[in-house]
Amino acid sequence: MLYFVTVNYYSTELIEQLIQSIEDSSGLEYRVIIVNNSPTDVSIYQLECESTVILESGENVGFGAGCNLGLDWVYQQDPQGIVWLINPDTVLGSQGWEQVPNLLAANPEVSILGTIVYEPTGTLWFAGGVFIPSQGAILEKNLLSLEADADYVPCDWVTGCSLLINLGQFSECPTFDPDYFLYYEDFDFCRRYAAQGHIIGVTPKLSLIHAPSSITDTQVKDKFKHSTYSYLRTMEKYSPKRILIGRLFRLIAHALILSFVKPEIARGKLAGLAQYCQRSPLVKALLSPLKLTGSDVYFG
């Protein structure tokens, strides 16, 4: 069975549209698992039915931790199942998802599979991810432009906006690092499991439409706080120390400049920097002359 897992944060109307696009695409057996990260959003329960399960997180635990709740529920029910992690602000493309089981059955070596993602305008938003550790470069690149007939193309990472997981490839339930509240958790997920020998790919056979930042743009300060912290955490884990330090000081300079022209974004970036510095003894020591720790950098 195919299990769609999505994380709700005051997105009932969007998820309703997503479910409708799933229903319109195929008659195959499926279930939708909604992890509710907004406990006061009782409207989400109007979507509960035989094919839709709602799991309560109790609070906003972030995207990765929310996905973990959904993944664990599916794994307990069906450890050989296929999970499609999918954003609330998406709808399935014209290509039907009924080919998912056959696609993974024909390519059993693949553990994690991304799809093509388009913006509502038709602009290509994602078709593959590349990572260059020596440069700390996390890149989105159209890897499918010359491989339109392939079932999939291997890549370094795929977006969590639309990410298929073949649970049968894992000896235990795969999980996201809950330290990533939002942003870069998909990259970390792919790189951790690639290091264990799992194959990550992106397929031209499936597509969906995504409205980027339609949810996160409603909370600008939090968006830049989480993206800044998660980015630095990722540089720390996967790039040389010199890259981390260079990006850290560049982010500090950029945030200080933005404080004069875009103070809300600057507050978010500085809050993310403070959070990261508090959790990194090495960086805390390097920045101590600047006193850029704790609430000293946060002027919200």
TrEMBL record:
<feature type="domain" description="Glycosyltransferase 2-like">
    <location>
        <begin position="6"/>
        <end position="124"/>
    </location>
</feature>
<protein>
    <submittedName>
        <fullName>Glycosyltransferase</fullName>
        <ecNumber>2.4.-.-</ecNumber>
    </submittedName>
</protein>
<dbReference type="GO" id="GO:0016757">
    <property type="term" value="F:glycosyltransferase activity"/>
</dbReference>
<dbReference type="Pfam" id="PF00535">
    <property type="entry name" value="Glycos_transf_2"/>
</dbReference>
<dbReference type="InterPro" id="IPR001173">
    <property type="entry name" value="Glyco_trans_2-like"/>
</dbReference>
<dbReference type="InterPro" id="IPR029044">
    <property type="entry name" value="Nucleotide-diphossugar_trans"/>
</dbReference>
<keyword id="KW-0328">Glycosyltransferase</keyword>
<keyword id="KW-0808">Transferase</keyword>
